[in-house]
Write a structure and sequence with these properties.
6-stranded mixed β-sheet, alpha/beta, single chain, 19 helices, 5-stranded mixed β-sheet, 3 domains, Tyrosyl-Transfer RNA Synthetase, Structural Genomics Hypothetical 15.5 Kd Protein In mrcA-pckA Intergenic Region, Chain A
Length: 406
């Protein structure tokens, strides 16, 4: 496939959803303008079955670069997931079996298919699994790789330093995670790695190994994090009921976007849609000058995002359902129903039926006054409420559930 070095398209690539490019943005620009076809990748450990809009940002950037004719790799960390990435963790992460990883990844490709050219006949995204090479390393190979780093470099990581201060254990295998992720770059012989800021340390480990083992520079392209510009809280949080996940129904996805804070609107347009910068600047100005109702802009945002993943027809239906449900006070006609034994804890019913991920999520919702009984029109304040008769609940701002006791 012919490489495109159009200055305008490259400028968008280097500007939209970009937090940092190492060693420098200018050096990467020169590489792209040279017309050379580069090989780049984004890696992920399938520790769950669902992706959210924060993940999607990375894949939308990947797609922009792929459309310029460059070779894109979607790396599944089916080996590194078994080590357990310690990133941003103050305790050891549970190691996954390869079977767990294979099970988790089943839906991923389906979820990103609307935004990534997986089946492009000329330049498809390559799907690779790092078990294919990491599982074949010999002990002498591990020694050679690890000799490029010091223990001091590893314990400088924030999460390790914190554990040391709190007298919590750091297991030796956790040090191997950045080494293995770094070796991915060496084995695939890439020119660039794309990642979020939480993976910067690991990506830089790969840059170090590329220099020492391949005598080659590797660029690190760090994408922006979806966070509230005022509170700095993450926009995507399943436990708080604010996450917008790619495998959600059109209605749930629409409502999830609508539940976002008004301050989040501009960044969601930038990172999660294809709306041109010029239009987004107009949206920013309208919000700043209070010449338009933020709700109306957010409805347009929600419709655009749902259209990307479910199509225009379903997006329009989701909008109509939202208006009927939330603006006219109606409850959805296709509300999910679950059954419970009389006296069974509602928290257990919701977790067992996978309505909520954990009792911890239920507790946070109750304490946050985010569980509403639609019949009595009161918030649920008792975490230990039990099933009796029929209960219709709204969980957070977008999820409805009817519990019938038997």
């Amino acid at each position: 496939m012919k490489v495109v070095n159009d200055p305008d398209k490259i400028e968008e690539l280097l500007t939209r959803s970009v937090a940092e490019i190492l060693p420098t943005k200018e050096e990467f620009r020169k590489l792209l303008m040279s017309g050379k076809r580069i090989k780049f990748y984004i890696g992920t450990d399938p520790t769950g079955t669902s992706l959210h809009l924060g993940h999607a940002t990375n894949y939308m950037v990947l797609e922009r670069l792929r459309q310029l004719g460059h070779e894109a790799i979607f790396l599944i960390g089916d080996f590194t997931a078994r080590i357990g990435d310690p990133t941003d963790k103050t305790a050891t992460r549970k190691q996954l079996s390869r079977k767990d990883v294979k099970s988790n990844v089943k839906t991923w490709l389906k979820q990103i298919k609307p935004i990534v050219g997986l089946n492009d006949p000329e330049n498809p995204v390559k799907i690779l699994y790092n078990h294919d090479w990491l599982s074949k390393l010999k002990f002498e190979d591990i020694i050679e790789i690890s000799s490029n780093f010091t223990v001091q470099q590893m314990v400088e990581r924030d999460m390790f330093s914190k554990r040391i201060k709190e007298n919590k254990p750091i297991y030796l295998h956790e040090f191997f995670y950045p080494l293995m992720q770094g070796y991915d770059s060496v084995f695939m012989d890439v020119d660039m790695e794309m990642c979020g800021n939480d993976q910067k340390f690991n990506a830089l480990a790969g840059r170090t190994l590329m220099r020492k083992m391949k005598s080659k520079e590797k660029f690190v392209f760090i994408t922006t994090l979806l966070e509230n510009p005022i509170t700095k809280e993450k926009m995507m949080s399943k436990s708080l009921g604010t996450g917008v996940f790619l495998d959600e129904s059109p209605g749930s996805m629409y409502a999830g976007v609508m539940s976002q804070a008004d301050a989040n609107i501009p960044q969601l347009f930038i990172d999660c849609t294809y709306v041109p910068f010029s239009e987004i600047e107009g949206i920013k100005n309208s919000l700043k000058s209070n010449t338009v109702n933020p709700r109306d802009i957010k409805m347009d945002l929600a419709k655009k995002i749902v259209s990307i993943y479910h199509g225009d027809k379903k997006a329009k239906a989701a909008e109509e359902a939202f208006i009927n449900t939330f603006q006219k006070g109606e409850m959805p006609e296709d509300m999910e129903e679950v059954f419970a034994d009389v006296g069974e804890l509602v928290s257990e019913v919701l977790v067992n039926n996978k309505v909520l991920s954990s009792k911890g999520e239920w507790r946070r919702l109750v304490l946050g006054n985010a569980v509403h009984n639609l019949v009595t029109e009161e918030n649920i304040t008792d975490q230990n409420i039990k099933a009796e008769g029929e209960i219709t609940l709204r969980l957070g701002k977008k999820k409805f559930i009817k519990i019938k006791s038997k």
